[in-house]
Amino acid sequence: MTLRLTLRRLALGLAVLLLGGLLFAWSGLFSVRASSGHWPVTGWFLHWVMQNSVRTDALPVAAPEDLSSPALLARGAGHYATGCAPCHGAPGQPQDPVVRQSLPAPPPLVDEPGDWTPAERFRIVQHGVRYSGMPAWVAPERADEVWAMVAFLQAMPDMPPEEYRRLAYGPQAGGEAQAAGAAGLRGLARDGMADCARCHGPDGRGRDNEAFPVLSGQSETYLAQALTAFAQGRRHSGIMQPPAARTEAAALREIAAHYARQPAFPVPQAADPGLLAEGERIAREGIPAEGVPACLSCHGAAALARNPAYPRLHGQHASYLENQLALWREGQRGGGPFNELMHTIAERLAPDQAKAAAAWFATRREAPEQ
Ligand code: HEC
Ligand code: HEC
Ligand code: HEC
């Protein structure tokens, strides 16, 4: 007897298969136990699919030329210690046996860094991996931060544990809680402060060149507004949102007050005289043809004294200031209640004008008079 394949029979066959599949899933006979592991072929297939997807996703990504600057490594390591090491382990910190029991288990990135190009690592860290527990970056649009993490991942397998500890926890690793205690902080604020001091230092001066913005001497109101914006997800940063979100609001306010009390610390910075002259002109006069007001009308000595929501820019790292202006230009930076003002201004500044203004403010030791 021969069966003729008709459309009707084909549809019927498919419906029976679908129903069978549903019945099997409903019966509970398919095991979701992580402890049983995958069949080797399933494990291979899933990883193959992931590799292909990452490779194609990475095609349009161009890696920055230099991924070895100490600032990038420090930023990457600081976040890795709390955001990634609990799953992947770190130099001198073996992987936790508990996470080894998940399926798929996170690979130990020190011993098995994987054969990825920087662009592929960028995509894995930026978007995470579906069905695997590998999370996406908290602020995927912050490519600058994802590159800092990629820079660190490239360097990590050869990194001695002491160097990792210094990069991730700061030069006085372990001493921050005491430093915070000495500064008169109590309980919760002291614990939160130890986390902040890893990157910003107990005195808010930062470390590793321009890795972290200077907080010392900044106005308390501005610091508190920035921290609330990070904690509530209104200012996007995969590195700063987590520490702000895991610290109690009351502790954040105390820590903001602590950093505001620290003596201001202008960092000596040099720049090309032509660039500085252009920057000074923009700061003092603005760019009337483009509708850009003078920066000093809000960031000069008189305005800073009048309105504590205006941040001091003098003595801040030029690269940090320039990057914040770029984030506003691209519509990616939030902040306190007046941050829309800066969005409008930054949109009207060309990248080289932003660079010039940032460079000039960075070289000022005192709040400039208008
Ligand atoms: C909750 C646990 C978890 C956390 C937290 C986590 N990962 Fe992963 N990660 C995984 C898992 C699981 C995989 C395996 C994904 C796969 O192969 O499908 C993975 C894969 C990776 C890979 C690809 C490795 C390879 O060779 O396949 C990189 C790179 C990576 N993670 C980096 C990071 C970074 C950087 C962070 C912190 C920002 C991080 N991970 C945080 C679980 C985690
Ligand atoms: C892993 C390193 C790291 C930790 C931990 C950390 N920060 Fe930050 N912080 C950064 C980086 C990087 C930036 C710059 C963010 C950006 O580019 O958007 C920043 C920015 C800030 C800003 C904004 C400065 C400005 O001028 O707008 C404040 C305020 C701040 N941090 C306070 C804190 C406090 C308080 C804590 C502890 C609760 C903390 N940070 C913990 C790395 C860190
Ligand atoms: C009308 C007032 C005003 C003017 C004019 C102004 N700013 Fe601002 N600026 C602000 C405010 C308010 C903030 C804080 C935004 C927030 O809440 O995060 C700020 C923040 C900044 C920051 C971020 C600082 C940090 O620590 O993250 C930079 C950089 C900056 N301004 C640069 C400039 C430059 C350059 C100019 C001139 C071209 C300028 N601003 C003109 C009001 C102003």
In short:
The protein is mostly helical and 370 residues long. Helices cover 55% and strands 0% of the residues.
Walk me through what this model shows.
This protein has 370 residues and is an all-alpha fold. It has three domains: 49-168, Cytochrome Bc1 Complex, Chain D, domain 2, CATH 1.10.760; 176-261, Cytochrome Bc1 Complex, Chain D, domain 2; 273-363, Cytochrome c-like domain (Cytochrome Bc1 Complex, Chain D, domain 2, Orthogonal Bundle). 55% of the residues lie in helices and 0% in strands. The chain is built from 19 helices and no strands. The structure holds heme C (3 copies). This is C-type cytochrome. It comes from Teichococcus coralli. Keywords: Electron transport, Heme, Iron, Metal-binding, Transport. Residues 71-157, 176-263, 274-365 form the Cytochrome c domain.
What integer is the average pLDDT?
94
The assembly state of the depicted protein chains is single chain
Examine the coordinates and then state which fold CATH places here, giving the name of the CATH topology of the largest domain. Answer: Cytochrome Bc1 Complex, Chain D, domain 2
Describe the sheet with the most strands.
Answer: none
Question: What share of residues are in beta strands?
Answer: under 5%
Number of domains: 3
Question: How far apart, in Å, are the first and last alpha carbons?
Answer: 98 Å
Shape: elongated
* Radius of gyration of CA atoms, rounded to a whole number: 26 Å
Count of alpha/pi helices: 19
| Overall SS class | mainly alpha
Low-confidence stretches: none
Share in helix: 40-55%
Bound molecules: heme C
What is the CATH class name of the largest domain? Mainly Alpha
CATH architecture of the largest domain: Orthogonal Bundle
How many β-strand runs? 0
